[in-house]
């Protein structure tokens, strides 16, 4: 059984990805920060369907906690699957913040940086010894790094940086046959940044070739597909999942 670790797996795209990966026969380690009830709900849904999953607490902004988190991961792997490594890492945890460029404070900038670039960088580095050779890293980036959207300049900048990091991971981890790719969702119906109101959804729909906003499952199936053997020769790529947003 292949095992996937998904950060921010208690809601939205992360939860949908956890459920889809479990449906395809993977064991799932998902993380949460502030909502253990939601995370345990995802675990319960997976186990009720005959799968196996564990929820662990992780604050991606707190890099000092990563070594202890790695120990928690190893313990969970040993107890649940009798393994000391896992196969796939999905760096998904994040949050949205919308402020015009001229109003962004250093604190807001630093908080976004910690979660969306520094966190994935050092979490991946810390977990690397327990990622199995031949594994796969998927980083969640964003269509906002391709299409400039007013009010998200720091968020989009760090997502763009994470896409660059992905290519370097693919290059530097190739000797271990570890692939690295990023996925860039477009407009998705989640709670990120406060969700979508009717007016905003109508605007995004009008800008999307397939005529609707995306759902978390639209991204989840793409991630699960990337993790599969069918995508074994896809490496170092950033794949936009947006239904044709502003093309």
Characterize the structure shown.
The protein has one domain (3-238): NAD(P)-binding Rossmann-like Domain (Rossmann fold, 3-Layer(aba) Sandwich). Helix 1 (12-23) links the parallel strand 1 and strand 2. It has helices at 12-23, 36-48, 66-81, 106-127, 153-172, 198-206, 216-227; strands spanning 3-6, 27-32, 53-57, 86-91, 131-140, 179-185, 238-241. It has a 7-stranded parallel sheet with strand order 3-2-1-4-5-6-7, sandwiched between helices. Helix 1 packs parallel to helix 2, helix 1 (12-23) crosses helix 7 and helix 4 packs parallel to helix 5. It is built from 7 helices and 7 strands; from the N terminus they run E-H-E-H-E-H-E-H-E-H-E-H-H-E. It has 247 residues and is an alpha/beta fold. Helix content is 42%, strand content 17%.
Question: What is the secondary structure topology, with strand pairs?
Answer:
Layout: E1 3-6, H1 12-23, E2 27-32, H2 36-48, E3 53-57, H3 66-81, E4 86-91, H4 106-127, E5 131-140, H5 153-172, E6 179-185, H6 198-206, H7 216-227, E7 238-241
Parallel strand pairs: 1-2, 1-4, 2-3, 4-5, 5-6, 6-7
Comma- or semicolon-separated keywords:
Rossmann fold; 17% strand; 247 residues; 42% helix; single chain
CATH superfamily: NAD(P)-binding Rossmann-like Domain
CATH architecture: 3-Layer(aba) Sandwich
Q: Specify the helix fraction band.
A: 40-55%
For the report, how would you describe the main beta sheet? 7 strands, parallel
Helical run tally? 7
Low-confidence spans: pLDDT under 50, at least 5 residues?
Answer: none
Strand order of the largest sheet: 3-2-1-4-5-6-7
Radius of gyration: 17 Å
Class of secondary structure makeup: alpha/beta
Q: Whole-Å distance between the termini?
A: 39 Å
């Amino acid at each position: 059984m292949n095992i996937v670790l998904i950060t921010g797996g208690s809601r939205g795209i992360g939860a949908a990805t956890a459920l889809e990966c479990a449906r395809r026969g993977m064991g799932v380690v998902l993380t949460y920060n502030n909502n253990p009830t939601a995370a345990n709900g995802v675990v319960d849904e997976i186990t009720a369907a005959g799968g196996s999953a564990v929820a662990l607490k992780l604050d991606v902004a707190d890099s000092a906690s990563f070594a202890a988190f790695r120990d928690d991961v190893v313990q969970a792997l040993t107890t649940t699957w009798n393994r000391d490594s896992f196969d796939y890492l999905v760096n998904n945890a994040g949050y949205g913040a919308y402020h015009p460029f001229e109003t962004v404070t250093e604190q807001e900038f630093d908080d976004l940086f910690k979660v969306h670039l520094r966190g994935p960088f050092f979490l991946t580095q810390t977990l690397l010894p327990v990622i199995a050779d031949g594994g796969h890293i998927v980083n969640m980036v964003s269509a906002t790094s391709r299409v400039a959207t007013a009010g998200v300049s720091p968020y989009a900048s760090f997502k763009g940086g994470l896409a660059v990091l992905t290519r370097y991971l693919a290059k530097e981890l190739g000797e271990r046959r570890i692939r690295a790719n990023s996925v860039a969702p477009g407009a998705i119906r989640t709670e990120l940044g406060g969700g979508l109101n009717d007016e905003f959804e109508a605007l995004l729909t009008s800008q999307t070739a397939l005529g609707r906003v995306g759902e978390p499952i639209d991204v989840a199936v793409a991630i699960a597909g990337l993790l599969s053997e069918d995508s074994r020769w896809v490496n170092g790529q950033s794949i936009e999942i947006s239904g044709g947003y502003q093309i």
